[in-house]
Design brief:
8 helices, globular, mainly alpha, 83% helix
Length: 247
C-alpha cells in the first residue's frame, strides 16, 4: 500500500507540472492560480496540520510565532540574498547575465522550498501509516489532492524567473520524486508529532510569503487584473475544496 501511494504522488505531481509546461503561453493566468493554490495550501493544509500536531506540546502563540518566523526568514532570504525585484523595477534595458542569474536563483530557491515541502508530505504519509493504515490512507488522499498543484507551482517558479523549459522539467522531476523519497525515508526513522507540527508551521510561513509577495504581484503585472484575480480566488477555493473533502 505504501509503495502504491509513493508511485501515485509521483504521477500526480508530474501531471500537474506537465500541464503548466503545456500552457506556458498563458503563464500569467497559471501564476494567478498558483498564487491562490500556494496560499490555500498554507492556510488550509499546513497551518491546521501544524496546530493539530503541535498544540499538545506547545502553546498556540509559539506555533503562530514559528509561522511568522518562516515568513521573516524567507523575506530576508529574498531581499538580502536573492535580491527580489519585480520586472517593472528593472532598468528598461536588455537583461544582462547578472540580472538573469538573480532571477534564476530566486526560481531555484522557490522550487527547492516546494520540493522540500513535498518531501515532508511524503514523510507525513509514512508516519501516518506507522499509526495505522486507515490514518495513512486519509493523509495520503490529502497529499495527492494538492500534489497536482505542487507540480504546477514548481514549473511556474522556474518559468516566471526566466528559467528554461528543460530546467523547469528537471525541477518538476525533483518535486515529483520528493514525496516518494519522503515515504520511503520513514522506514528508517520516526519523528514526534510536535516537532513535525513545528516544521509544517515554518513552511506555512514560507508559502505565505511566496504566494503573497511573489506570485500574486507577478501574475498581475502588465496583465488584466480581473481575470488574474479570478484565477487566484479559484486557486484558493479549489485547494479549500480538495483539502476539505480529502480530509
Amino acid at each position: 500500500m505504501v509503495l502504491l501511494v509513493a508511485v501515485a504522488t509521483f504521477f500526480s505531481t508530474l501531471f500537474g507540472g506537465l500541464v503548466a509546461l503545456r500552457l506556458k503561453d498563458q503563464l500569467h493566468l497559471i501564476l494567478g492560480f498558483s498564487a491562490g493554490a500556494v496560499i490555500g495550501v498554507a492556510f488550509f493544509d499546513l497551518m491546521p496540520e501544524a496546530l493539530e500536531l503541535a498544540s499538545g506540546s506547545y502553546e498556540l502563540s509559539t506555533i503562530v510565532s514559528i509561522i511568522a518566523l518562516g515568513f521573516i526568514i524567507y523575506l530576508v532570504l529574498d531581499r538580502l540574498i536573492l535580491h527580489h525585484q519585480h520586472d517593472e523595477d528593472l532598468p528598461a534595458v536588455p537583461a544582462h547575465a547578472g540580472q538573469a542569474g538573480v532571477h534564476a536563483k530566486r526560481g531555484h530557491a522557490s522550487a527547492g522550498t516546494l520540493s522540500f515541502h513535498s518531501f515532508l508530505d511524503g514523510v507525513g504519509i509514512g508516519l501516518a501509516f506507522q499509526v495505522s493504515a486507515a490514518v495513512g490512507i486519509v493523509v495520503a488522499l490529502a497529499v495527492l489532492a494538492h500534489d497536482f498543484s505542487d507540480g504546477i507551482n514548481t514549473v511556474n517558479f522556474i518559468l516566471k524567473n526566466g528559467g528554461r523549459h528543460s530546467q523547469a522539467f528537471r525541477w518538476l522531476l525533483v518535486d515529483a520524486i520528493a514525496p516518494a523519497l519522503g515515504v520511503f525515508s520513514t522506514l528508517f526513522f520516526s519523528v514526534s508529532q510536535a516537532h513535525l507540527g513545528l516544521l509544517l508551521a515554518l513552511f506555512a510561513g514560507f508559502f505565505l510569503y511566496i504566494g503573497a509577495s511573489d506570485l500574486v504581484p507577478e501574475s498581475h503585472h502588465a496583465h488584466p487584473t480581473r481575470l488574474t484575480t479570478i484565477m487566484t480566488v479559484a486557486g484558493v477555493g479549489l485547494l479549500y475544496i480538495i483539502i476539505h473533502f480529502a480530509v
